[in-house]
Amino acid sequence: MARCSVCGKPAVYVNRAAGLALCQRHFLEYFDRKVRRTIRKYKLFRPREHIVVAVSGGKDSMALLHYLHNLAKRVPGWRVTALLVDEGIRGYREYTVKRLVDYAEEHGIEYHIARFKDYVGYTLDEIVRRGRELGLPYLPCTYCGVLRRYIMNRAAREIGATVIATGHNLDDIVQTFLMNILGNDWAKIVRLGPISGPASHPRFVRKVKPFYEVLEKETTLYAVIHGLYTGFEECPYAQMSIRWTVRRMINELEERSPGVKYSLLRSLETAINMLRRQGIGEPDEEEGLYSCALCGEPAAHPICRACQLRLQLGIMEVSPEKLESLPPEARRMAESALRLSEERSRRR
Q1: Rounded to two decimals, what is the model's pTM?
Q2: Does 288 have pLDDT greater than 60?
Q3: Class of domain 42-281 (CATH, top level)
Q4: Phi-psi region of 169 (alpha: psi -120 to 50; beta: other; left: phi over 0)
């Protein structure tokens, strides 16, 4: 059995890359130092903040909520609220919603639930089914990712958030880094830093990642120690994503060569600096150039991705008068999406 590198007691955590083993007490101290160092290093929070934690009910977001709730007790200017986006995935989301509600009510934390049904009129299950019926070329994760971000930003702004904290850990970030390389999507890589979003857009709520340098196995252990990891529910759509394959590949590499994940994070930071020097994918340029001509939300194009998807799915109506009043490029995009929806509907 491994022994704690600090006190010699039985270890609950081993980091082969660092040659480190820690007992429960010293692991929690190590975890706290690591997260606080990340917050200071990247200046994630200001002295006065309304921090809205994006909670899914999974281990990472529950760990983040627990950590920030307790840290905020030592920072008088911070207020912490939990926000969960309920996509309406049957057999999955109802369990994670219950986990958040139980925890928040036990600890006296304000929480809000924003439902797909309320914001876009359909659950994700209904959207996926409709997309398949129309033969649209999108995986469920595409609809979910675009609409979740859209709803998260709107809902957080509506409850007065000054910043959204997400539970993305180091593993999540390097997986997305490789996925963007595989997709030749270099502009998106710039947005993988610890702070994201067009700060200049009045409707965009800044997003931060306090677990940016924390491994998934560390957030998992933190959640287990604090009784936050009470079950494991997997999204039924998860295995359809390329992330599933990329995650397994990175974990296999880490097993063979400890430290690969940290090396990938450093490579990401190098790539971000190089891309920014080239003027590629700057957050203020790539995202937030526009206010969507249909919904008014921040957008990288005249019509935001959420509205484009809804038009293609045929679940968003635009009157002829509204269409005619749009700026030329926005009208072209809207007409293209509507035309695709009509063509697919005729083939059914």
Answers
A1: 0.93
A2: no
A3: alpha beta
A4: beta
